[in-house]
Amino acid sequence: MTVNVMTAGEVAKKVINKDALFILDVRNEDAFADWKIEGDNFDYFNIPYFELLDGVEGIMEKIPSDKEVLVVCAKEGSSVMVAEMLAEEGLTVSYLKGGMKSWSEHLEPVKVGDLKDGGELYQFVRIGKGCLSYMVISNGEAAIIDATRMTDVFLNFAESKGAKITNVLDTHLHADHISGGRSIAEKTNTTYWLPPKDAEEVTFDYATLEGGNVVTIGNTAIDIHALYSPGHTIGSTSFVVDEKFLLSGDILFIDSIGRPDLAGKAEDWVGDLRESLYTRYRELSGELVVLPAHFMIIDELNEDGSVAEKLGTLFVKNHGLNIDDEAEFRRLVTENLPPQPNAYQEIRETNMGKITPEEEKQREMEIGPNRCAVR
Amino acid sequence: MDVTKVLDAKGLACPMPIVRTKKAINELEPGQILEVHATDKGAKSDLTAWAKSGGHELLKDTEENEVFKFWIKKG
């Protein structure tokens, strides 16, 4: 019948609302096995587009008639072709605009809380890749933490809130995605804060972010307290915002903990990771709401699409915080680690300013899930 | 290598490199070799998987100056 277009934003809404959707993914089988659009009520059928060049008759019985159907491929072209073939067979289907590339890049802003004196804290959920960025807004000023490469989203959002960006911070040197921090700081002529121990090889100027630093946003002092918490990287720093929120970077997630092997040797940093999680975080209030830099699985999303949980709850429920035996903890985070994120060495070099790939190359480098955690 | 036919698929986006390759290979006899030039970054994984599923043999592939070249023997 007809072919419709569905945007990544529309798919994101379906994930958050737990809507039903049938996804016909026409990428290669290994690409599908590696990374796909996850949703609680999504059903899937994967067949590479090149198996369908002679027609779609063979798969018609696999396509349900009582569900919305979305055809997905890497960049869009093949999904349009397959969607048109299905339409000729009498189905009404959609294709994903921009394919998995646009799914990887979509950011969904979700408000996670109010700060004192009218301030607000927003989480930007990169739902396709599992990256989380943050914006602290107070009295016409904004700070951005762990920004992704899609800098326009942050610049436009701050403008829509009438806020001037005054500080840009990264909790650590990222290995799974290209940071937008430096670019935003350059465009807005503001300070870019990085933990110096992660930044020894960077080729640009930055402000050194160290434990005990206080960055104030707005006149009413929504303070960001930096807390040194190494383990995922040697420089990893957490932030306590407004004494209410703990931005844990890649140290602590909702249902997992940070892996220590992406920037060095796991054996070297496992002790730091344990110290950060089992000693430094234990000294903080259990009432703090943990806001991590990633999620791994869609179950970690709350009803409103946010990723947040009280520290006290995580001390009870997060398996990685409940391994009493140090040797067992050491085994968990150094053995049987999942594969590393796609192109993680090149991504680290990009974030250090050592290489500057073209935008298309940057997109390719970021394909796939973030893989920064160990469960 | 005794190449029977050369297909220029440079500048074409997915799915066209495979669509053209399939058409070109249909015009060959089993055992003959098709050389394909493409610039689409997905071409390598797609052509490899396509050749395998179609019973053809990917003899060799190279990348030079952002041009991918493939030599496929019809099965």
Automatic annotation (TrEMBL), chain A:
Family matches, as SMART domains: Lactamase_B, RHOD
Gene3D superfamilies: Rhodanese-like domain, Ribonuclease Z/Hydroxyacylglutathione hydrolase-like
Residue ranges annotated for the Rhodanese domain, each copy included: 17-112
Record InterPro entries: Metallo-B-lactamas (IPR001279), Mito_Persulfide_Diox (IPR051682), POD-like_MBL-fold (IPR044528), Rhodanese-like_dom (IPR001763), Rhodanese-like_dom_sf (IPR036873), RibonucZ/Hydroxyglut_hydro (IPR036866)
A Pfam cross-reference name: Lactamase_B
Molecular function GO terms recorded: sulfur dioxygenase activity
Listed CDD domains: POD-like_MBL-fold (cd07724)
PROSITE patterns, alphabetized: RHODANESE_3
Single GO BP term: glutathione metabolic process
Residue stretches spanning the membrane: none
PANTHER family, alphabetized: BETA-LACTAMASE DOMAIN PROTEIN, PERSULFIDE DIOXYGENASE ETHE1
Protein name: MBL fold metallo-hydrolase
TrEMBL record, chain B:
Organism superkingdom: Bacteria
Family per similarity comment: Belongs to the sulfur carrier protein TusA family.
Stretches assigned to the UPF0033 domain: 7-31
Record organism: Aquibacillus koreensis
PROSITE patterns (alphabetical): UPF0033 (PS01148)
Lineage: Bacteria, Bacillati, Bacillota, Bacilli, Bacillales
A Pfam family that the UniProt record links to this protein: TusA
PANTHER family noted in UniProt: SULFUR CARRIER PROTEIN YEDF-RELATED (PTHR33279)
Official protein name in the record: Sulfurtransferase TusA family protein
